[in-house]
Amino acid sequence: MARVRSHPAVALLVAGVLTLGLAACADATDPPRSPAPSASDTPPASPSPTPSETAADGVEGWTVTPDGIGPFQIGMRYVDALTAHDVTVAETCTGVASVDTGGSDVDMWLVATGQDPQGTVSEITVSVMADTAAEHAGTGPLTDTGIGLGSSVKELEAAYPDARELDDTQAPNRSMYYVQSDTGGGLIFTTASGADVIWSISVTTGETPVYEPCA
User: Fold this and answer.
1) Looking at the predicted structure, is the pLDDT value of residue 52 above 90?
2) Stretch 167-181: mean pLDDT, rounded?
3) What is residue 54's predicted lDDT score, i.e. its pLDDT?
4) Fewer beta carbons within 10 angstroms: which end of the chain, N or C?
5) β-strands 142-143, 63-65: how paired?
6) CB of 119 within 8 A of CB of 110?
7) % of the chain exceeding 70 in pLDDT
8) CA angle (176 as vertex; 159, 102 as ends), nearest 5
9) pLDDT at residue 5 above 50?
10) How far apart are CA 132 and CA 112, in angstroms?
11) What are residue 203's phi and psi, to 5 degrees?
């Protein structure tokens, strides 16, 4: 009986085919691996929001601007002003609300346009008793020029050279000084008639603050 001899070249060829087949099977079953993310692939963290003035600051720490006082802004919806901030706000009559100033003797209130509770805030006022106003000098709330309750008319005029005294205050025994703003409203600083110390500050879209709105 004749014997078949294996040729070395044939054996090598068969071995190579088997090796390629096994490699192909391995490639078909092993899922591809995702590359590890680099530092540049990681999205940047969102910037921390800048905190606004809150009840924690206290009314003395709030700022008076032509747009509002502290967290309360001219043009915000009146109903939102009643609940939008961490401050107790209570409606005292239709369209007029008193702001709890946390034990301070500074009074603060908001008035809706036309005293319509469905409207927007058109006036924000802070005040103290006229005969004790001088005791509040420099304690706030203050404008960015440092004028506040207890400031003198002389200080007001130095800080706001364009301040003008109103001819008609629509309120008895009061003098008022008006500072026009670029936004259309204005700041009104009130003293007792002929006196020198500011005891009330209003941010308003009107010509004068509303006189005794709940009377």
Assistant:
1) no
2) 93
3) 53
4) N
5) parallel
6) no
7) 73
8) 80
9) no
10) 29
11) -105, 120
Phi-psi region of 35 (alpha: psi -120 to 50; beta: other; left: phi over 0): beta
SS3 letters for the chain? CCCCCCCHHHHHHHHHHHHHHHHHHHHHHCCCCCCCCCHHHCCCCCCCCCCCCCHHHCHHHCEEECCEECCEECCCEHHHHCCCCCCCEEEEECCEEEECCCCCCCEEEEEEHHHCCCCEEEEEEEECCHHHHHHHCCCCCEECCCCECCCEHHHHHHHCCCCEECCCCCCCCEEEEEEECCCCCEEEEEEECCCCEEEEEEEECCCCCCCCCCC
Torsional class of 102: left (φ above 0), alpha (ψ -120 to 50), beta (otherwise): left
- In the block, tokens 């008193």 appear at 98
The pLDDT assigned to 53 comes to 52
Residue recorded with tokens 């003395």: 60
Q: Confirm if 78 and 70 have CB atoms less than 8 A apart.
A: no
Q: What is the mean pLDDT of the chain?
A: 80
Q: How does pLDDT run across 175-190, given as a tens digit for each residue?
A: 999 999 887 779 999 9
Token couple for 6: 């294996």
Name the one residue in this structure whose structure tokens are 């190579």.
16
pTM tops 0.85, yes or no? no
Lowest mean pLDDT among 124-133, 175-184, 201-210: 175-184
